[in-house]
Amino acid sequence: MNMDEEEVQVWDGASRGCSHTHSCNPPGPDDASHSHTCFHTHTHLIIPDQQENDHSDSSNKKRSCGNREAVRKYREKKKARTAYLEDEVKRLQTLNEHLHRKLQSQATVETEVIRLRTLLVEMQGKIDGELGGFSNQKHCFGSGLVFKEDGCSVATSNIICEAARVECEEG
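Structure tokens predicted for BZIP domain-containing protein:
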């Protein structure tokens, strides 16, 4: 046998057809007989030669190698993204600590401003008390020492009206 005849035998053995007929389409509800024609093709698997196996194995290896490369690149990108996010977290934590310290120092400064204003009002009261003998100056008679929450308004009793006004710039 030559090569062509062997191939024909392989293909003949690999694919066979058969057909059969039976009745269909019953004319009424009592008649259950029916007929139709079916054609079936039966196929058999042909095991490929060793050369074809080697070719498919090498393509699988290439695909697997490409897959590994893609997974490696994905992992590298993921590591880089994670490192970037960790650095960003550290930077934001440092900034947060800095702002927290700045806020605490601002509260300390505001407390010092209130203390100094109180001291100023007391000194003005003493000065006005010593200068109180001058009759040509107008005096204000208030209810005593008053501070607003922001520490900008100051009023005292028995002091010169112009001296009792304390203005502050709001920032």
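The beta strands are 15-23, 35-43, 139-140, 146-147, 154-155, 159-160.
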